[in-house]
Specification:
The complex is a heterodimer.
Chain A (H helix, E strand, L loop, with lengths): L3 E2 L5 E4 L4 E7 L6 E7 L6 E6 L3 E5 L2 E6 L4 E6 L8 E9 L2 E4 L3 E6 L1
Chain B lengths: L4 E3 L2 E4 L5 E6 L6 E8 L3 E9 L2 E5 L6 E5 L5 E5 L8 E8 L6 E2 L3 E5 L1
Parallel strand pairs in B: 2-11
Antiparallel strand pairs in B: 1-3, 3-8, 4-5, 4-9, 5-6, 7-8, 9-10, 9-11
Classes of the chains: A mainly beta, B mainly beta.
């Protein structure tokens, strides 16, 4: 079992819709969770982090964490074509950041 | 604040050669982590340096090594290059290893 799992996609959503990206992790002791966005040919960019159970909102982005289910998600409201990218989930595990392989999001006009 | 700077941006080497990549972290950040990114394997952790000491290491062979200087700048060295080492090498800086900010990366091609 991989430590951090994501569906590779692509996830296709129409412009203006809500995109929902999901991630599961195997280490129940993990404490910190991150979402990075990576455009094709570019490096990952940190967009959200969450440490506590529940929701954390920042603009159009909402991160959701459920430690009991070992599940973290990222919601993007009012999706725009410029949101089309690969979204990487990362989990901090004993000072090492473990990445999922990413979900490719496509937002079509 | 200046971001993370990686040099060079692109490198072409042949099998058996060695290569050194450089990373200058964000001012004030003492942690530098290195990652290898390939289409098949995604982002794989190589190692982390904090205050000139290697604090964590991933599952890569000993051909991959690194160091960090007193000004927090870090270098990564790969010896005896193999075709499979072709990848994007990313450096990330952090004040504490949690919130990591990536440089633009060095794309290494091994022929």
């Amino acid at each position: 079992q991989k430590e951090v799992e994501q569906n590779s996609g692509p996830l296709s959503v129409p412009e203006g819709a809500i995109a929902s990206l999901n991630c599961t992790y195997s280490d129940r002791g993990s404490q910190s969770f991150f979402w990075y966005r990576q455009y094709s040919g570019k490096s990952p960019e940190l967009i959200m982090f969450i440490y506590s159970n529940g929701d954390k909102e920042d603009g159009r982005f909402t991160a959701q964490l459920n430690k009991a289910s070992q599940y973290v998600s990222l919601l993007i409201r009012d999706s725009q074509p410029s949101d089309s990218a690969t979204y990487l989930c990362a989990v901090l595990n004993t000072d090492k950041l473990i990445f999922g392989t990413g979900t490719r999001l496509q937002v079509f006009p | 604040k200046a971001g993370v700077t990686q040099t060079p941006r692109y490198l072409i080497k042949t099998r058996g050669q060695q290569v050194t990549l450089s990373c200058s972290p964000i001012s004030g950040h003492r942690s530098v982590s290195w990652y290898q990114q390939t289409p098949g394997q995604g982002l794989q952790f190589l190692f982390e340096y904090f205050s000139e000491t290697q604090r964590n290491k991933g599952n890569f062979p000993g051909r991959f090594s690194g160091r960090q200087f007193s000004n927090s700048r870090s270098e990564m060295n790969v010896s005896t290059l193999e075709l499979g080492d072709s990848a994007l090498y990313l450096c990330a800086s952090s004040p504490d290893s949690a919130l990591q900010y990536f440089g633009a990366g060095t794309r290494l091609s091994v022929l």
